[in-house]
Every structure is written in structure tokens, then in C-alpha cells.
Amino acid sequence: MQLIHSPEDSSPERLRFDGCRSNVDEPTRLLTVREAADRLALGRSTLYNLMDRGALPYVKIGRARRIPPQALERLVRESLVVRDSEAFPA
């Protein structure tokens, strides 16, 4: 992604994938349930279950649920299973 400086504004703008300019960083963009499911390679119903159980935080706007990308990173980090290497020798 390329930074673009507007002549009238000193704040950097970002060129989005659709070619529009935005001063919103991509990591702060909320994801749809479908986008989040695609990123995790899970089904949408699995994500709805995680949200309903409270394991995945989301923002509700009207009837739509949106997921912060940081919530996906936290879910993966907290769900990471690490086996004791001494218990299972290679």
C-alpha cells in the first residue's frame, strides 16, 4: 500500500484496493463475518457461535455484526495450543 500526501492536508492518506483514498488505516477497518471467516478459513456459523459464546468480540451496527481485525488476532493467539516437547519426543 502506498502513502499519498494530500497538498491541503499534512495527514497521510492511503490508497485503498478499490482505488479510493482513505485516511483510515486498514487494520482499524471492521470486517464482515464473511471476511473474518475467510481469513480464519472457518465457516460463518462457527464465527457466529464464537461471537454468541463471547469468545470473539464484535461491534453490532443495526442488525449487522462487524469484527475488528485485532479480535481475530487475539482469538488465534489465545487459542494457540502448544504441546510440551518433552512429553512428545520427535
Briefly summarize what is shown:
By secondary structure, the protein is α+β, with helices and mostly antiparallel strands.
Give me some keywords for this one:
elongated; three-stranded antiparallel sheet; 90 residues; disordered N terminus; alpha+beta
Structure overview:
The protein is an alpha+beta fold. It contains three helices and five strands, in the order βββααββα. The chain has helices at residues 33-40, 44-53, 69-79; strands spanning 3-5, 12-15, 21-22, 59-61, 64-66. The strands form two sheets. The protein has a three-stranded antiparallel beta sheet with strand order 1-2-3, with no helix packed on it. A two-stranded antiparallel ribbon has the order 4-5. Helix 1 packs across helix 2 (44-53). It is elongated and about 50 Å long.
Main β-sheet, in a few words? 3 strands, antiparallel
**Terminal CA distance:** 42 Å
Q: What portion of residues belong to β-strands?
A: 15-25%
Low-confidence stretches: 1-9
Overall strand count: 5
Tell me the helix content: 25-40%
What order do the SSEs take from the amino end to the carboxyl end, as H and E?
EEEHHEEH
Shape: elongated
Q: Strand order, biggest sheet?
A: 1-2-3
Nearest-angstrom radius of gyration?
18 Å
Number of helices: 3
Structural class: alpha+beta
Q: On the 0-100 scale, what is the average pLDDT?
A: 79
